[in-house]
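Exercise 7. Predict the joint structure of the components listed below.
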Amino acid sequence: MVRAWLTAVLVSLAATAAVAGEAQFVTVDDPYIELHTGPGKGYPITRIIERGARIEIVKRRTQWFKVRDERGEQGWAAQEQMARTLQPSGKPAEFREPGREDYQQQRWSIGLLAGDFGGATVYTGFAAYRLSKHLAVELDASQILGNFSDGWGASINISHTFVPEWRASPFFSLGTGIIRIEPKSTLAQAEDRTDQTAIVGAGVQAYLSRRFVVRAEYKSYVVLSSRNDNEDVDEWKAGFAVFF
Amino acid sequence: MESRIRSIFLTAMCSASAFGLGACATAGGSDTGDGTPQVIEPEVERRDIDVSAIDTEDFEVTAFAGILSVEDFESNAVYGARLAYHVSESFFTEATYATTTVGESSFEKLGGGAVLLSDRDLSYYDLSLGYNLFPGEVFLGANRAFNSSVYLIGGVGSTDFSGDSNFTVNFGFGFKVLPTDFIAVRLEARDYLFDTEVTGEKKTTHNLQTTLNISFFF
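Solution:
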């Protein structure tokens, strides 16, 4: 089992290495660029490359680029400096970070939320697909961890974002799903139960930076139980999402 | 330099030749303006860079083994896997799943056949945020330096134990060394806190874990 897993890891690593495209070159246009030993400001600067030198971009990690000059010297350069290099055509190199325009154009997003579900802790993972500027379909799965019971839920929702152009925009959602509640094993006469839910929600979603979005929402659940009365549960959650 | 020598050689050849002018016109090629004839037209590629073709390594997959001391239930071998995404040079998010089989409590050992747990497996997952506090280097001998970092990590998750899922908070710190750019070896110590009623009354348990991890960036 372990061997199979390791093989899988090695094969996928080899595959990523193979996918890495042909060499990319830029020319230094700052008086010099500083090369750190690692991808971060805290790593020491051990070399500089002067204006006019042609450098190959080996790889990238977060906002740092590993580069190699023609003598084969390697090191990590910061994105701010790499943005002031020239492409082979003489145009400035562009290492643009995703921004708000991309947020407007997004199709897919995935995220994680945590909060309170009727007194219990809840974690939710969700994926959303935007159908139009305003409308999106959202699928989510939650784990509920309470003092007396735990359980899980899943739902499908349609959400409507009121002003997608705003940095922070309110939204409203409507959905349905299922919920399973499993009372703690220490409780006597406890029975697991699975019920359908109807959900109404509202919240705010705001663009943070790069690909990140922050989101806070309230949802009101009606648990359509097989007993005499339906149960109402309030849920408050906040978290992050990443869009593509 | 080579082309200059060649052009001098060709010029000499041309002057010596009876067909001088004609041959020189074909071999000499264009004139660079400063009087030196250029033999070969430089073939410079003018293609722009393709940012999407740059190999980005923001994800890190980890396998680990270690010891998880489960409060009241001995210290046990724990195995797990992690997946991290590096948001910036300082911050990363990481999801972990791990599993262990707990030993016997002293009550079970001394109680002559008393059993507290029917299922002795414990598993947990967590979602955590890490911060690279002290990036730096470690030196091995006189000629080798490896990048390293001391990091803080903490988050929330859930622990499946004694038939229940329990809300779990974790925090700790680690030290990582990178023998190459894409491999990291990590030593980590973390405390996992959750409430349980297994021993009769409800209490918050501290479950300390130390692990040795090996990671690959991709």
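Discussion. The first strand of chain A starts at residue 24 and ends at 28.
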